[in-house]
Design goal:
Elements lengths: L6 E3 L2 H6 L10 E8 L5 H11 L8 E5 L4 E5 L5 E4 L14 E6 L2 E7 L5 H21 L11 H4 L3 H4 L27 E8 H9 L5 H16 L7 E8 H5 L8 E4 L2 E2 L8 H15 L2 H16 L1 H4 L3 H15 L6 E8 L4 H4 L2 E7 L8 E7 L3 E8 L5 H11 L5 E5 L2
Parallel strand pairs: 5-6, 9-12, 12-14
Antiparallel strand pairs: 1-4, 2-7, 2-13, 3-4, 6-7, 8-15, 8-16, 9-10, 9-11, 14-15
Helix pairs in contact: 2-3, 7-9, 7-14
Length: 409
C-alpha cells in the first residue's frame, strides 16, 4: 500500500484542455511577481518543498487513460527552474506546474487542466509568502494543511450540472486578420497603471475598474475593425466559486461572452459601459451559469464520445473545442482582480503580472491583475502586429491615465 499511486479524474474543462495541447495552444498561463532583490534559488526550492503537502494535486503528471487522460501524483519535488524561453510556450505533461525564476522575478506557469486563475493565485500567494518568510522573516512555520483534501478533490462542474436548455452564444465571431509568429514565440506587453487614476476615470461612468478596462478594450477593437461583418466577442472568465459559494483548487470558471456588432455604427465608451453593466447583471447569476455548465459538459457527457478510445478523441477534440469555444471569441480578457498579500509582505513586492494562455484562434489576449497601488494590464500576442496594445494605452493616456509600458520584443 505504501507504493500505491494516487490519481485524480479530470474535471470537464480539464478533459478538454488536456486533449487540445499544441505549440500554438499550450493552455498554459503565467503569474509573476517582481521583487527588489535577486531570487535566492535554494530558498525558493525550500518554499516550493513546503507547499507540496498543502497542494499535492498540483504536483501531478498527466497520464493517458483508455478513454480519458488522468492525473497521477508524483513523488518528485515541484520543478523549480530558470526562465529561458518565451512565456507560456512550453508545457510538459510530466510537469504541468513549473516554478520559474529570472533575476528579481518569480513566476509560475500552470496548465489549465490543473486549475484556473483563482486556483493558481491561491498557490502563488502561498509561494510568495513562504519565500519571503524564509528570506526576510526567518519563519520556519509550516503551512496549515487542515481540510485540504475534500476541497481539492471536488469536481464542482459535475456537482452543479443540471439538465437545462443549453446556453446560446455567438457561433462565429470576428477574428483578427493578423499573421501568426513562428512557433515558440509569444510577444508580451505590460502596462503598469495607477489604480487611483483608473478609479477616478471609471467613477465618472459609475462602473468598476475591471469593466472600465474591458470597455476600453472593446472601444479600441471596434474603432480598429469598424468594417468587421461579424460580431466582436470578448471571452471573459468568471470565477464560479463566489457565485455558488464553493471552494476548490481545480477549475471552476465559465467564460461569459459580451459581444458588440460593429455594423451598428460607432459606439461611445459610455454606451459600451452601459451595455456591459446590463450584460453582467443579466448574465452573472446562478441560473444563467447552470446553462453554461450544461453546455460546457455536454460534449464529454455524450455517450458516443465517452466510449471512443482516447487516441481517437485526441484527433477530433481540438475541433470540438474550436466549435464550442474559441470559434465564438475574437479575443480574451481575464481579470484576476486585486492580488492580496499579508500587509507585512507588501513592501517587498515591486510588481505583478498575469499572462493568459496563447491561442491560434484568439491571437491577442489580455490579462489584468492589481495590487493596492497599480493595475498591471498584460497583452499576450502571437503576431508581430502590436497596434491593439498601442491603441489601448494611447486611449488611456488621452484620458490622463498614464502607463509605464514594458515589452519582451
Amino acid at each position: 500500500m505504501k507504493n500505491q499511486k494516487i490519481w485524480y479524474k479530470l474535471d470537464a474543462f480539464a478533459k478538454t484542455y488536456s486533449s487540445i495541447i499544441s505549440e500554438g495552444r499550450t493552455t498554459c498561463f503565467r503569474l509573476s511577481v517582481l521583487l527588489y532583490e535577486d531570487i535566492e534559488v535554494e530558498i525558493l526550492k525550500k518554499a516550493a518543498e513546503d507547499l507540496q503537502k498543502k497542494y499535492p494535486f498540483y504536483n501531478s503528471e498527466l497520464k493517458k487513460g483508455i478513454f480519458w487522460n488522468y492525473l497521477q501524483q508524483k513523488n518528485t519535488p515541484l520543478q523549480v527552474v530558470p526562465e529561458i524561453a518565451y512565456p507560456c510556450t512550453e508545457i510538459k505533461k510530466k510537469n504541468p506546474l513549473r516554478i520559474l525564476y529570472y533575476k528579481k522575478k518569480i513566476s509560475i506557469e500552470i496548465a489549465h487542466f490543473l486549475t484556473d486563475g483563482e486556483g493558481a493565485a491561491a498557490f502563488f500567494r502561498d509561494l510568495i509568502e513562504k519565500y519571503l518568510d524564509l528570506k526576510y522573516f526567518k519563519s520556519e512555520e509550516k503551512l496549515e494543511n487542515k481540510e485540504i483534501k475534500h476541497i481539492e478533490y471536488t469536481d464542482l462542474y459535475t456537482k452543479h450540472m443540471r439538465k437545462v436548455n443549453k446556453e446560446k452564444t455567438v457561433k462565429r465571431a470576428f477574428h483578427l486578420p493578423l499573421k501568426i509568429l513562428e512557433k515558440g514565440q509569444y510577444h508580451i506587453t505590460t502596462g503598469e497603471i495607477s489604480v487611483e487614476d483608473l478609479k477616478r476615470e471609471s467613477g465618472k461612468y459609475n462602473t468598476t475598474v475591471g469593466k472600465y478596462l474591458l470597455a476600453v478594450y472593446f472601444k479600441v477593437l471596434l474603432e480598429k475593425y469598424s468594417y468587421a461583418k461579424k460580431e466582436i466577442v470578448i471571452g471573459v472568465p468568471v470565477d464560479l466559486r463566489r457565485i455558488f459559494m464553493e471552494e476548490t483548487y481545480r477549475n471552476f470558471f465559465i467564460n461569459i461572452t459580451p459581444s458588440i456588432d460593429p455594423s451598428l455604427g460607432n459606439f461611445t465608451l459610455e454606451e459600451i459601459i452601459k451595455y456591459l453593466d446590463n450584460y453582467f447583471k443579466m448574465k452573472i447569476t446562478q441560473k444563467e451559469f447552470y446553462k453554461s455548465i450544461y453546455k460546457a459538459m455536454n460534449p464529454i457527457r455524450n455517450m458516443m464520445i465517452k466510449v471512443v478510445p482516447y487516441i481517437i478523441k485526441r484527433i477530433f477534440f481540438p475541433f470540438i473545442f474550436d466549435y464550442y469555444g474559441e470559434r465564438g471569441y475574437t479575443t480574451g480578457f481575464s481579470n484576476l482582480g486585486v492580488f492580496r498579500l499579508d500587509e507585512k509582505y507588501e513592501e517587498c513586492i515591486k510588481g505583478l503580472r498575469f499572462l493568459p494562455p496563447p491561442s491560434k484562434r484568439c491571437k491577442v489576449k489580455a490579462g489584468v491583475i492589481s495590487d493596492t497601488e497599480k493595475a498591471y494590464v498584460t497583452f499576450g500576442n502571437l503576431t508581430a502586429n502590436h497596434e491593439i496594445e498601442r491603441d489601448f494605452f494611447v486611449y488611456l493616456r488621452r484620458r490622463n491615465i498614464k502607463s509605464k509600458v514594458i515589452t519582451n520584443y
